[in-house]
């Protein structure tokens, strides 16, 4: 039996990951802001086979509360096998270009809160000398484009932070996995027109569980985004800057 923590547990992708793990009779701590929603998810996971499901409510942008939150997680489980960080927002790029509050909301939700939690989780796992920290990032962090460069910058920072943390924790038997997601059909992307390269959340969730099991360092999900991003990042800047992306 594994002890699994899902931070941002109300996200569709996180829920689909949890459903897979619940069938293996694992124990969970679900972290999010909406207790009522978490209770519904908890009941579903128990029906699917979860041995125990604990709920912790927290506004994850309240950085000053992170230490207490992480202490509460370890107090509940004693040792943790997997932590999945899945929270974040898309935000409004155009608004954030002139509105400092929107700008900070995007940066804090998608990077600062993650980095703060990862630092604290790292110390706990370093002590127990085992565990996996899996972080949902995005292909948006591979190259900045005018339509979402603030969101992309936050994801890029998170990916680089994860790389460094992986390097730091390797000697202690702790693994860090960076999950670079492409387009996924979820409520967060409901306003986008969907096409053939869009993935379904359950499919991506299976990829996440597989990557964790295989102790991958960094993966693109779906896999073909690796090749799409190779093409995009190879476009010379003198050409790329003229594109409407």
Automatic annotation (TrEMBL):
UniProt cross-references to InterPro entries, sorted A to Z: NAD(P)-bd_dom_sf, SDR_fam
Keywords: Oxidoreductase
Record-linked Pfam families: adh_short (PF00106)
KW Oxidoreductase (keyword) present: yes
Listed Gene3D superfamilies: NAD(P)-binding Rossmann-like Domain
Homology family: Belongs to the short-chain dehydrogenases/reductases (SDR) family.
Protein name, as recorded: Short-chain dehydrogenase
């Amino acid at each position: 039996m594994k002890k699994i923590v899902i931070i941002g547990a109300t996200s569709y992708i996180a829920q689909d990951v949890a459903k897979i793990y619940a069938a293996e009779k694992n124990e969970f701590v679900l972290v999010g802001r909406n207790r009522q929603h978490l209770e519904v998810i908890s009941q579903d996971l128990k029906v699917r086979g979860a041995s125990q499901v604990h709920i912790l409510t927290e506004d994850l942008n309240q950085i000053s509360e992170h230490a207490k939150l992480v202490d509460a997680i370890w107090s509940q489980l004693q040792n943790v096998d997997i932590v999945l960080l899945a929270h974040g927002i898309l935000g409004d790029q155009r608004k954030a270009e002139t509105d400092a509050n929107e700008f900070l909301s995007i940066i804090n939700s998608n990077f600062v809160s993650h980095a703060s939690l990862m630092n604290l989780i790292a110390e706990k796992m370093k002590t127990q000398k085992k565990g996996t920290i899996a972080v949902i990032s995005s292909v948006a962090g591979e190259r900045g484009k005018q339509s979402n460069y603030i969101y992309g910058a936050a994801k890029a920072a998170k990916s680089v932070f994860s790389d460094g943390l992986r390097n730091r924790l390797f000697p202690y038997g702790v693994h860090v996995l960076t999950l670079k997601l492409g387009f996924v059909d979820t409520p967060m992307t409901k306003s986008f027109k969907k096409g053939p390269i869009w993935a379904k959340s359950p499919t991506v969730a299976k990829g996440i569980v597989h990557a964790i099991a295989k102790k991958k360092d960094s993966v693109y999900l779906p896999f073909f985004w690796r090749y799409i991003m190779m093409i995009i990042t190879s476009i010379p800047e003198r050409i790329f800057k003229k594109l409407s992306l």
